[in-house]
Amino acid sequence: MQKTLTSAQISKASTFSTSVGGPAFTTDTLAFFSGSDPQPREDGQNSLFNGIQVIGPDQNRPDTLIQSKFSGGDDLTLNRGAHSIKVGAVVTRIDTNNVQAAYANGGDYLSYAISPTEYAGQFFEEGLPFLAFAVPPGENNSTRYFREIMISPYIQDDWKVSSRLTLNIGFRYDYDTNPVGWSYGNQPLGVLVGSFLPPTGPVILPGGGSYAPYSPVKHVFANNLNAANFEPRFGFAYSPFKDNKTVFRGGIGVFFDPTTARLYESGFIATPPAGFSLIVFPGFPTPYSGGLLGSPIQAGPSEFAGVTYQSSGNSPYQVQYNFDIQRQITPATIFSIGYVGSVSRHLWTQGDINPPKCTTFPDCTALPQVPTSLPTASNATFTVTTACSDPTETSCYGSGVQFPCLGATGLPSSTCSTQGPRINATFGEMIQAYNNGASSYNSLQVSLNHQFARNFTGQFNYTWSHCIDDGSFASSLEEWGQLQTDRYNPSYDYENCNFDLRHNISANALYTLPFKGNRLVEGWRFSTILGIHSGLPLNVYNDGILFPDPADLGSEWNSRANYTFAPGCRPNHIIDKQAVNGLGQLIPGTIQWFDPSCYEAQAPGFLGNIRRNSLPGPGTLSTDLSLTKETKLTERLNMEFRAEVFNWINHFNPGAQSPNSAEVLGAINEPSGTGQTSFSQSPVVTPRQIQFALKFDF
Questions:
Q1: What are the residues whose beta carbons fall under 8 Å from the beta carbon of 436, sequence distance 6 or more?
Q2: CB 493 within 8 A of CB 612
Q3: How far, CA to CA in Å, does 126 sit from each of 53, 266, 281, 465?
Q4: pLDDT tens digit sequence for 317-376
Q5: Which pick of 68, 324, 530, 547 has the fewest CB atoms within 10 Å?
């Protein structure tokens, strides 16, 4: 029987979810309204949302990034005795012309969100919008120009020390100038300049003029991130025995990823001399023409896809290293075992550089502690309260740094509804990318490779690996990267990667049947593929109905919860058994993967003590079979018959099985219960499938 996962899998755990990813973007180039602003690049559309289908380009696109690259280079090889030396270089001039049409090119986005919503169409016809995301007159041009030059020289020496030892020594330098840029009309770029690390927060420096609180700048960064991209490499191959059937190989190298326009451009497209505002009761069809209020909502400057101007250190880099031993067992069989690892630093990540203040300001570096048992009021290390985020809880607890927030009345409260005061009250939420991310990877890799001999060929591979990072996401507008949860202490998120697969086994084999004599018995081949993979990690998030983010940090994703330390619980407690209903009866076709009673929402204002990606998800097992028969009918006509069975043992591999499910890593149903509770694994394997094919070649 093919099992399925249903919402019955999670009972009380419906208050927890895992979700990663971002919105999908579409583009429609229909121009609905031509704005009155005379500046160029006024695409000028009115897009509607909340009750009315969008008309005109999507609010988030198009984002045009046009590059012209002019490059030249050469390579020189010198063979001298035991040395083979290569020297070369490439010089590239990159011209980038960018316009983000969504945010500052004359586009006005109107909302007719009226209650009840069925009146939205009527208000649309009467031209009475409620809200507008609009561009002020004279600030509708987001065209940006960037220029940079990349210079990449290298030298490498392949030195054959002896017949048994070869050394590879190399050096590369990936230099890139600090890009210069300007806005349309030869105006400077606008960017926030000041201190951006808590506890200081954003600082307004004098001299901004009409750009204030932003400052006019010429370069993309305050310092050139690509000036010290030095990349030494070393490798060797050594055969210690006279039979030359055993080889030791190893190497280490530094590899930089120069920071280019695909990342930094988002920090300049919505800053002066371009801009946008949110207007209550705007005019129509021109939002700034008046209406009932017709004025922007006054709030502190904010960003959601900025890039820090004062980046520290270098561009992102990775140190890769490996060592393996390879041994020829038979003339057609090779066995190898090795270690592969890497360390990455200065990775681009993002977060709020102006987060709410905490109780231990200005330090705020305490991490949540994990108790050995359920905390009590007598334990001074933890805060125990009855004012819990989850209304079903009678008591809850928190530890580490606390972020006092405000209740519905706007006063300090134990039940958060709005964020507390920020580090710098002049600014709002300032989401920026910065290069302080880190990751590490270590693996043991074993393989057995048998080349085709005696009618048989096959491969077997096993990898044990462990990956740790503080955010398995891109940054800025790339794939809608996740924000760091605790900006004061990034190590709070330094745990298992989203793609941390501990065990991977893959094998394949092909056997040609040795029958000979006539067309019916010869030409048969049998093949199979086996894949066994441990599960991707599950990140248990608090997804309470009322307060999904008790610390109210606005981190884009719901915050991690606490362990309950209920009887029988442990940090990675997996059940993996058939679920039961409230009467204790088994529910056919359902699986309960983990125990929901082991988790609870933390106290308001606190971060949870669960590690990121703490639970192992369900693994996958797949086996495919194929039987092939080739027959030569005539001198010019061949026939091939194929019979293939996918997942022939019909093993159940949980996957995203409902369009209403989150369909992300370790997705668990929303509290509303809509859709099917599911786990998304890669690859998602379908039930047993059998197919036949007949092919003629002539």
A1: 312, 346, 347, 349, 490
A2: yes
A3: 16, 37, 13, 62
A4: 999 999 999 999 999 999 999 999 999 999 998 888 888 888 888 888 899 988 888 887
A5: 68
| Residues comprising the chain, all counted | 698
CB neighbour burial string for 74-91, b if at least 16 within 10 angstroms, e if fewer: eeeeeeeeeeeeeeebee
**pTM for this entry:** 0.81
* Residue 15 three-state SS: helix
State residue 596 phi and psi, 5-degree precision: -70, -20
- Residues 6 or more apart whose CB falls under 8 angstroms from that of 188 comprise 182, 211, 216, 217, 218
Return the beta strands (E) in 295-362 as ranges: 303-307, 317-330, 333-352
Rounded to an integer, what is the distance from CA 644 to the centroid of its chain? 36
* CA-to-CA separations, 86 to 75, 91, 153, 171, 199, in angstroms, rounded: 7, 17, 11, 11, 50
Q: What is the pLDDT of residue 603?
A: 83
Pairing of strands 108-111, 46-49: parallel
Segment 93-118, tens digit of pLDDT: 999 998 765 544 444 555 555 555 55
Residues 454, 512: Cα–Cα separation, whole Å: 9
Three-class secondary structure of residue 138 per DSSP:
coil
pLDDT of 43: 40
Residue 493 CB partners (closer than 8 Å, separation 6+): 470, 471, 484, 485, 486, 612
Q: What pLDDT shows up at residue 295?
A: 54
In contact, 148 and 154? CB cutoff 8 Å:
no
Q: How far apart are CA 287 and CA 134, in angstroms?
A: 7
Q: Tens digits of per-residue pLDDT, 642-684? A: 999 998 988 877 654 333 333 333 333 233 322 223 333 334 4
Compute how many other C-beta atoms are within 10 angstroms of the C-beta atom of residue 589. Answer: 15
**pLDDT (0 to 100) of residue 173:** 97
To the nearest whole percent, how much of the chain has pLDDT over 70?
A: 69
pLDDT bracket for residue 6 (50, 70, 90):
very low
Task: Enter the DSSP assignment of 12.
Answer: G
Query: Could you tell me which residues come within 8 angstroms of residue 131 by beta carbon, excluding any fewer than 6 positions away?
Result: 110, 111, 113, 278, 279, 280, 281, 282
Query: What are 530's two structure tokens?
Result: 């086996």
